[in-house]
Amino acid sequence: MIYANYYAFAYLGTTAGFITLGVSAIACIGSLILFMRSKTLDKVALKKNITSKVDRTAADQVKVGDTGVAITRLALIGNAEIDGNIVEVKSMDGFLNEKTPIIVNRIADGVIMVEKKKD
Fold first, then answer.
1. Which domain of life does the protein's organism represent (predicted)?
2. 3-class DSSP string for the chain
3. 8 Å CB contact between 23 and 39
């Protein structure tokens, strides 16, 4: 279509070029409308709902004041081992390196917030 428009403007004149441009625009819009109405997208669309849930049994056993060790680097969020359970935690002290001793400060909406343990 691009070459047809170029050819019409370059070799047939501006009138033929604008006619070709108009027909091309109508053809593009028409084919887009037909494609949207053809239900082709419905055939390839994901229609299954995800019903699985994250296992939070280990996080339910954690209480405020429990101590543990950061397993991964806590770049605000990471994993920690608290009372033998590996859970996802959020650091309140910013970035903490792995193997840093931590203490649970607060639990809000299932998010375990920890801070560096003071010696």
1. Bacteria
2. CHHHHHHHHHHHCHHHHHHHHHHHHHHHHHHHHHHHHCCHHHHHCCCCCCCCCCCCHHHHCCCCCCEEEECCCEEEEEEEEECCEEEEEEEEEEEECCCCEEEEEEEECCEEEEEECCC
3. no
Class at the top of the CATH hierarchy for domain 57-116: mainly beta
Domain locations along the chain: 2-44, 57-116
26 φ/ψ angles, rounded to the nearest 5 degrees? -65, -40
Q: What are the φ and ψ backbone dihedral angles of 82, each rounded to 5 degrees?
A: -125, 115
